[in-house]
Amino acid sequence: MRMEAQIQQIKSWLGIGSINIFGLPMSGKDTVGVQLAEKLGAKFLSSGIIVRAMEQATGQSLSHDGKLVPSSVFYDWVLPYFEKEELWKYPLVLSSIGRWAGEEDEVMAVAKSSGHTIRAAIELKLSDKDVVDRWEAAKILGDRGLRADDADPQVFQTRIDEYHEKTLPVLKRYQELGLLISVPADLPRELVFQNVVNALANFASRTGRFVPEL
After folding, report:
1. 181, 48, 58, 186: which is closest to 122 by C-alpha?
2. Sign of CA dihedral 148, 150, 154, 158
3. With a threshold of 0.70, does the pTM exceed it?
4. Is the separation of the CB atoms in 3 and 194 below 8 Å?
5. Could you read off the pLDDT of 98-149 as tens digits, one per residue?
6. How far is CA 104 from the centre of its chain?
7. Exposure pattern of 37-66 as b/e (b: 16+ CB <10 Å)?
8. Which sign, positive or negative, has the C-alpha torsion 71, 75, 77, 81?
9. d(Cα 40, Cα 32) in Å, to the nearest integer?
10. Closest-CA residue to 193 (of 19, 35, 6)
């Protein structure tokens, strides 16, 4: 099936629901998310972008050490976006909304109540070694938009550790609900995106209008 047909299939299946994308640092979450949102006519929401904007607006620095912000802050800063009027009529592509174990059920409940039910969660799979290799290359090439705090190797390693400790249980929960799609991310960007579209189209065909009960 050509990509145009796959995109139409995904649009029909998704409605104004949400797709939540996860992955280690440097796995391409925002790159894939922005491209997917453009293809689907969706709005893109990144928890990292929202948190950093709120930190700047409030003069706080909660994530500078590489650790996730407390869940209470995440709920106050990020979840209200689901209710924004300008998003009502659009599907959403989410980048790591709800990264700390225990946040996923609250995210799914808020998404559902706002009409943006989470229909799938995508895991962009990348090894720790590949992550570090990409980080090293990004420092040399300057082409991947490194965050300022990623210049510190210890902070970057903390982000990796946080993913393993706090986010992998989130993915396990999505898997238990039958919503998780794993896609290898150790390929060129265009192939990763093509594989994401392929996986979503196959998932849409297989699951139809299924939505799990939380």
Report:
1. 181
2. positive
3. yes
4. yes
5. 999 999 999 999 999 999 999 999 999 999 999 999 888 887 766 545 455 5
6. 12
7. bebbebbbbbbbebbbebbeeeeeebbeeb
8. positive
9. 12
10. 35
